[in-house]
Write a structure and sequence with these properties.
Chain lengths: 272, 242
Amino acid sequence: MTVPEQPETVTEGERATDGAVDRRQFLTEALNVAAGAAPLVILGVVRIPAAGAQEAAGAVDQDEHNYAMGIDVNKCIGCARCVVACKTENDVPDDPEFFNTWIERYVIRPNGEVEVDSPNGGIDGFPPLDEETDLRRSFFVPKLCNHCASPPCVQVCPVGATFTTVDGVVLVDDEYCIGCRYCIQACPYGARWMHPEKHVAAKCTFCYHRVVDGLVPACVEVCPTGARIFGEVERLATPLARFMRFNDVQVLKPHLNTRPKAYYANLDGEVR
Amino acid sequence: MPQQVPRLIAVFVVALAALIGARMALVPDTFGDLGHYRAAAVDSITAHPKKYAGHAECSLCHGPIAEQRLTSNHRTVTCEVCHGPAAQHTTAPMDIKPTAPRERGLCPLCHSYNPSRPTGFPQIDEVAHNPLTPCITCHDPHAPEPPEVPEECSACHGQIARQKAVSHHTNLQCTVCHEAREEHKVNPRANRPSKPVQRSFCGVCHAQDDLSGERIPQIDLRSHGEPYMCWQCHYPHRPESG
């Protein structure tokens, strides 16, 4: 009886000469590539966001925040004090086509037809209605930038001039914006406008300059009925948390998956 | 080394240098520090000057008035709603004064009747309500409770009053169907008026067997619209509109 022949073992040297790469060679070459790439990082071709750099941007610790707004449609009286305050606070031109926030009046006719108007954003009041014969229901809806968690405007900006801050506010860098208007087209809420003098895109900032100092946005400050509630999405024991707990809350155009952070309570199904 | 290799290396070095040079020239400072944007933009946006000081700032000096407002029906109306932006006033209190509107024009912005406003919000008919008199003659804006208890429910419930006025129920007083305690007039939401709860209430006038007269529509309460309550189909403030 003969012992079966052992299968031929391959030595280390032979495997290397086959054209395959052994572990030692692989590691050496990988390290060389990494060492070669390091100058690129240093020279700024590849950027790695710095973790500590965020603290310089504001007085409060912004990592902790995720700002949002609640709007109770049942409380809005259409006085448009918010629109006036916003225009004042943010130096928005007076012309009736530039608004960071505006009030829409919805009129549902008895036959179900829906009419929406917002003359001068609501600042000059609204034309009278023939309510006796021609009105099923009517209400006001404040509108503003929804500060989406998945903002289409940021997605389409070709230069990175519009962006979401670390605390969830969508802003425009007006020194870097090239004024291409692509974001104005992309916003499904009509919240952006072209600044007539600066020729850059402009929008609601949630009054970021106030918020970082612990104040509320100007529109929230002046809302006489408390229809607007400013706060943070996940912060407990706050007015916004209570608003979210006790209301049936909706967002505008949820089917677009923009994940808006303007939350509406008592919103009529006709509101777009 | 083949002779084309040094040339290729030279081309690559030049291309790389051009790329790096172009990036250094074109990509602004601080771009990419926080994300795909200029981090310095955040600083320039936060440097925007404030126009509205915020009500907390006002109460530092105007404590008693702020205190009074907080216990009144205007507790949610902050100072700068009526007085305008006051951030400059906080830095130069004596030189720059906020406005103090005394004419009739400001209050109707919120309080004139408008059918789109939520019902129950106090709304007046500007033409009928003490015409040409400035509001502050009777109402203290920091504690605007009416000087007299409103005689008419329509002072706040304008929409209902208007609908009832053109309906067959126009001659019915609100108190025929609703019982409102006195406290409702000063603290409305905590003391809501009563509403009828039974079909027999409407039956007092509208049941077949009552003696209210032929001009009032009468129905057989036992069969008509059972099991619904009358007001689930008929809007009592304007019954003919359904």
